[in-house]
Design a protein that fits this description.
Layout: E1 10-13, H1 17-28, E2 33-37, E3 53-55, H2 71-82, H3 88-98, H4 101-107, E4 112-113, H5 122-125, E5 126-129, H6 132-146, E6 150-153, E7 155-163, E8 166-174
Parallel strand pairs: 1-2, 2-6
Antiparallel strand pairs: 3-5, 4-5, 7-8
Helix pairs in contact: 1-6, 2-3
Length: 178
């Protein structure tokens, strides 16, 4: 006799920064959420576990950030990094909304540390995660789990069944079991 399928309001494939933020937001809205992370628990977080800092616009001191880092300066920095290959409208939208991210992150368990002294203005532009990317991922996982999000590690998604514009079914192998 086969077990009845589990019903989730939201299934998130992957367990990096964006996935964890989506899971937290959905759970706070009352959804029953599962994260299907292909990595084992010790390697969770995708590329997010390798990051070390976050950059956001701010019009005055914000959390660990000093002074201000305004939209035009941030955009100019972005243009240097991308060699001018940037959609200005989307970039400015992301920059403007980035100021709200740092307080949201802090409210959801992420901790920051001051930048090292003598690092040319990084204390003004970059907020460094306490514990690096692993600290970021671990904080979000703790918050998600406290909200009832189930995280399944070693969960390899093999098929998505569509019903119109909705995913009706997710097939995956969990720890080698279908």
């Amino acid at each position: 006799m086969q077990d009845a399928p589990e019903i989730w309001d939201v299934a998130i494939i992957g367990g990096g920064n964006a996935a964890l933020c989506a899971a937290i937001t959905a759970a706070e809205a009352g959804a029953r959420v599962v994260i299907l992370e292909t990595a084992p628990k010790t390697y969770r977080g995708g590329n997010s576990r390798h990051t070390r800092n976050f950059r956001c616009m701010h019009d005055g001191p914000l959390g660990p950030l000093t002074d201000s880092y305004l939209e035009d300066e941030y955009f100019a920095d972005l243009m240097k990094v991308t060699g001018g290959k940037t959609d200005e409208h989307l970039a400015r939208l992301a920059i403007r909304t980035s100021q709200d991210c740092l307080p949201w992150m802090e409210a959801h368990g992420v901790r920051f540390q001051p930048s090292l002294s003598g690092t040319l203005s990084l204390g003004r532009t970059n907020a460094f995660f306490l514990g690096g990317g692993k600290g970021l991922v671990n904080a979000y996982c703790r918050t998600a789990e406290a909200l009832g999000v189930e995280i399944r590690y070693e969960a390899n998604v093999t098929h998505l069944e569509l019903d119109g514009d909705r995913i009706a079914w997710v097939d995956y192998a969990h720890q080698g079991q279908d």
